[in-house]
Amino acid sequence: MKNNIEDLKKEIARIKKMNWIPWDWKNYGGTNIKLEKLLNRNPENFEIANYDGIKIKTKKSSLKDDITLFCASPDSFLFEMKRLYNLYAYPNRNNKTTKILSCNLYCGKLTYIYNDKLFSIKVNKKKEVIQLFVYDCSLNIIDNLTSWSFDMIKQKLEKKVSYLCLVKMDKSFWQNQLYMKYTNDIYYKLKDFNTFIDLIEKGTIWISFRVGVFKTGKRKGQMHDHGTSFCINIPDLDLLFNRI
């Protein structure tokens, strides 16, 4: 892995020397995809790290926001997200004829959903699951069937982000053309799974639901799950990883 990291450092150093790069949204899409193309890599399956075992994430230098570590739907039941959507989705404020289920879930914190429903997650180390609890307005538990097993999460975590490269970038708009340049790259190695679970319990890592509907095409109006994400704020990365 040491050689892979050194190779990636050299490649990103080459890209940084390119300075401001014209950005064609139609051809390249997001910043991660753009960087992968500059690295002469085709965008890979979201389930695996995208540079010889190293997961690359890009963020604007001026932002101190969050990143998605990996996506993992509940493995308690087949089509569990569809069940949750059918039960708890609420009208989209931008289009009242469609419904969405968009929220962040934390341990030790209740998230208001809609129609007096609240969500929260808990870590059950005895059963080795992260469990979703749904409450009514009186804080009675009305649903606790949804869960993520430790085995599945551990597999996703280690497969996806055992090694992480955070690449910071700047954007500029000049003469009707968007440009960007990559400015800094930081490398991390995952500490261990127990640290990950501890950070879930503390609310440092959270789970994000982003479920809506297809806006066009044959599936227009049907449920569109954009992925159940496990997220962390960038300043907290040092709690989960060791810097390389």
Write a structural description.
It is a single chain. The protein is of the alpha+beta class and 244 residues long. The protein has seven helices and 16 strands. The protein has helices at residues 2-16, 25-28, 31-38, 80-88, 150-161, 193-202, 237-240; strands at residues 21-22, 55-60, 66-71, 90-92, 95-105, 111-112, 118-124, 129-135, 141-143, 147-149, 163-174, 177-190, 205-213, 223-225, 229-233, 241-243. Strands 3, 4, 5, 13, 14 and 15 form a six-stranded antiparallel beta sheet that branches. The longest helix is centred in the first third of the chain and has 15 residues, at 2-16.
Helix/strand layout:
Elements lengths: L1 H15 L4 E2 L2 H4 L2 H8 L16 E6 L5 E6 L8 H9 L1 E3 L2 E11 L5 E2 L5 E7 L4 E7 L5 E3 L3 E3 H12 L1 E12 L2 E14 L2 H10 L2 E9 L9 E3 L3 E5 L3 H4 E3 L1
Parallel strand pairs: 2-11
Antiparallel strand pairs: 1-12, 3-15, 4-5, 5-13, 6-7, 7-8, 8-9, 8-10, 11-12, 12-16, 13-14, 13-15
Largest beta-sheet characterization = 6 strands, antiparallel
Structural class: alpha+beta
Low-confidence stretches: none
Globular, elongated, flat, extended or rod-shaped: what is the shape? Answer: globular
Q: How many helices does DSSP assign?
A: 7
First-residue to last-residue Cα separation: 11 Å
Radius of gyration over C-alpha positions, nearest whole angstrom: 20 Å
**SSE ordering:** HEHHEEHEEEEEEEHEEHEEEHE
β-strand percent reads 35-45%
Number of strands: 16
* Arithmetic mean of pLDDT: 90
Helix content bin: 25-40%
